[in-house]
Amino acid sequence: MPRNIKKDQQNREERTAQILEAAQHVFARRGLLTKIQDIAEEAGLSHGHIYNYFASKEEILLKIIDDGQSLYEKFLLSTRDLPTNALEKLRLLLSKYMLSDRTAEIYLVILQAQATDLLPQEAIAKMGEKARSNLVILTEIIEQGQREGLIRQEDSVVLTTLFLTLMQNISLMSLRGFAPLQVADMEMALRFGKLMLTKELGIGKICS
User: Is the pTM of the predicted complex or chain greater than 0.85?
Assistant: First the structure.
């Protein structure tokens, strides 16, 4: 019976996605100490089966990071190009971070990878270049808000970095042992982000 090439390719793509999802969970918990066997157990596969798809755990790690940064870039670009004002775009971005466990895992994996000396320097440099490229896209949204008079007229890169820090720390709350924010908490976080970008920050204003 002839092989179904299309079906084989589909099966390979599904198994690759299964391995990457499992590896992401494990790398988020164990960092660079993760072994191929750990990934295999998480994926419900044999140790040898993993090597049919990836040559090493480093290859898996770099694939997770590249996919994560590319997905974030795609989301930033689609958000930037929406026909709405900058504050609504930032609301959408923050909401996405608050409600996605996958975002937290990818961000933590990237942080660990950037801090290690176990990966090739060119790979770490590529991560940094992609992060800076994504920061530019987010800065364009901040600058749109400045042109609209919705965001205060200060250094746009600094404001972008502050907003990004808020998003990233919100995404890590559950992984750091804090109770994750619920949908009902979203408005408070959004109000905090808006105040940070539009007014002088003050506890009384945040809580009012």
Answer: no
Integer angstrom CA distances of residue 26 from 92, 146, 150? 28, 41, 41
In this predicted structure, the answer to whether residue 176 has a pLDDT above a threshold of 70 is no
Residue of 48, 24, 43 whose CA lies nearest to 34: 24
Assess whether pLDDT exceeds 60 at residue 205.
no
Do residues 75 and 167 touch, judged by C-beta distance below 8 A?
no
What domains sit in the chain, N to C, each tagged with a CATH number?
Answer: 1-55 (1.10.10.60), 58-207 (1.10.357.10)
Residue identified by tokens 């600058």 is: 143
- In one-letter notation, the amino acid at residue 41 is E
Distances in Å between the alpha carbon of 27 and those of 31, 100, 127, 202? 5, 17, 16, 38
Quote the pLDDT of residue 57.
Answer: 93
Q: How confident is the model at residue 59 (pLDDT cuts 50, 70, 90)?
A: very high
Rounded CA separation 60/69 (Å): 14
Banded model confidence at residue 165, pLDDT cuts 50, 70, 90: confident
